[in-house]
Design goal:
With about 210 residues, this protein is an alpha/beta fold. The protein is about 50% helix and about 10% strand. It is built from nine helices and six strands, in the order E-H-H-E-H-H-E-H-H-E-H-E-E-H-H. Strands 3-2-1-4-5-6 form a six-stranded mixed beta sheet. A hairpin with a 4-residue loop joins strand 5 and strand 6. The radius of gyration is 17 Å and the shape is globular. The chain starts with 8 loop residues before the first strand and ends with a helix.
């Protein structure tokens, strides 16, 4: 990944954006999430049309939705297919060895810095939780990383490690429900980045991904 700030926006979409967009259950929270997903979708269509942003769908997102198909109504699957066909697919496949390295890095950070890398609260919202990277999310994160993209998700807790891989000051993790970019305290960020073991693990991952 480049150490320079993003020169243009590339949105990399998580699976929950598609599921929320197509969830028509009559529940207050579901309705809120669906509206937020539709609002964001309309936003990126407009920005993409105006050539203000690129939009990519990770291969892992397509695979996750494929696995979920048998549990969904035909009408929902048809709508998901329409959404998937709207933007380009990122076909990058994360090698298993690098996948493991990313998960180990995430586990190390969470194990040693969970309390200090709590994301900054905005507009009085409930604090985001912090958890280590799961295998499927690992692949989505890698897609965002390789494209220097803004990872768009509701599950912020799963992708906290991405904030430590992005250049300082860049907007790279976005909660489309709360409509806000996520940051962690600069002091906490500096503390992790100065950790020698973290530096070594991060360099190894960067070297492997940028080959």
């Amino acid at each position: 990944m480049s150490n320079h700030p993003l020169l243009s926006t590339t949105y990399v979409l998580d699976t929950n954006l598609f599921r929320y967009h197509t969830d028509k259950r009559n529940d207050v929270n579901v309705k809120k999430h669906r509206k937020a997903a539709i609002d964001f979708w309309n936003k990126i269509i407009e920005e993409s049309t105006n050539q203000e942003a690129d939009v990519l769908i990770p291969l892992e997102v397509k695979n996750e939705l494929l696995v979920q198909r048998n549990q969904l109504k035909d009408s929902v699957n048809q709508k998901i297919d329409e959404l998937l066909n709207h933007f380009d697919m990122d076909h990058y496949v994360l090698p298993s060895a690098i996948e493991l390295e990313l998960r180990l890095l995430s586990s190390y950070v969470i194990g040693n810095y969970r309390d200090v890398i709590q994301p900054v609260e905005i507009n009085g919202n409930e604090p985001y939780k912090v958890t280590y990277l799961q295998a499927s999310d690992d692949r989505i994160l890698a897609s965002a990383y390789m494209n220097e993209g803004v990872l768009v998700t509701r599950n912020i807790k799963d992708f906290i490690i991405y904030l430590l891989l992005c250049p300082s000051g860049s907007k790279c993790l976005y909660d489309f429900v709360e409509k806000q970019y996520i940051t962690i305290p600069q002091e906490a960020r500096d503390k992790v980045l100065q950790d020698v073991k973290f530096q070594e693990m991060k360099r190894s991952i960067e070297s492997a991904l940028l080959l």
